[in-house]
Amino acid sequence: MPLTKVDTKKPIRGYIKPNKTQRVDCQKVINALDYADLSRGPGTLHTYGSARIDMQGKTALGASNIQVQIGSKTASTLIISKTALDITDITNQKGMVNAAISVLNQSMDSGTIWNIEGTLP
Question: What is the pTM assigned to this prediction?
Answer without folding.
Answer: 0.93
